Amino acid sequence: MDQLQIILLAIVQGLTEFLPISSSGHLLLPKELLGWPDQGLAFDVAVHVGSLAAVLLYFRKDVINLLQAWLGNVAGKAASDDSRLAWCVIIATLPAGLIGLLADSFIEQHLRGIAVVASTTILFGLLLGWADKTGSQSKTLLSISWRLALIIGFAQALALIPGTSRSGITITAALLLGFSRESSARFSFLLSIPLIVAAGGLKTLQLASAPSAVPWGELITGAVISGITAYLCIYYFLKLIDRIGMMPFVYYRLVLGVGLLAILWL
């Protein structure tokens, strides 16, 4: 890959991992519009490492507190708000993990086309807008229970369908359950940590089973750019979300979905 491809694809990964706008749709655009080849498994691993570093750095205090509280609870200490939230993150991660293992080959074979990505980008964008307009937005993460976490977890499993957007569908579910925009986004970002670890680990195992020359310069550049972009994305998203709401992302998704359909029909 040349430098422009590395920079653009790393920025796309850093933004779309956390914004509710569908990474699948964006990763199709360079290939379809510019004829760029697939970036390859090693680069996928690198940009996922960058995204993971960003979310861990931003939520480092939360992650440490949650981990300590969870370990303490497992060891027999009384449950706390942090330990309950940690259990909820675990519970909400399970549906996507299990369904992903069972349905991965079907999704890979049947749901990777532009028509699917365009349709889900539009459909779940509209659902996000409806949730933002109708949700009560009164709950904080102190109100979360394992039942609510499980519902958000099953919603997250829908993101296995390309174009859905993992952050988009989890924020949508949380809004529909009455959580505030900030709480919905924070829970979505915390949920991303185990899934990025799992996805990155799986890709790393696949890469290790098919060793080849490693372009370290490209990988390091991609990881750094993805990490910086993702960190800034998380920071500004949480800072602005209560002010701007979800509608800018809804409109953007509609434009993206229609654009992908235009590519398909032309």
Automatic annotation (TrEMBL):
Transmembrane segments: 6-29, 41-59, 84-102, 114-131, 189-207, 219-238, 250-265
Molecular function terms from GO: undecaprenyl-diphosphatase activity
InterPro entries in the cross-refs: UppP
Gene that produces this protein: uppP
Reactions catalysed: di-trans,octa-cis-undecaprenyl diphosphate + H2O = di-trans,octa-cis-undecaprenyl phosphate + phosphate + H(+)
Protein name in UniProt: Undecaprenyl-diphosphatase
Family per similarity comment: Belongs to the UppP family.
CC terms in the record's Gene Ontology section: plasma membrane
Alphabetized UniProt keyword annotations: Antibiotic resistance, Cell membrane, Cell shape, Cell wall biogenesis/degradation, Hydrolase, Membrane, Peptidoglycan synthesis, Transmembrane, Transmembrane helix
A single GO BP: cell wall organization
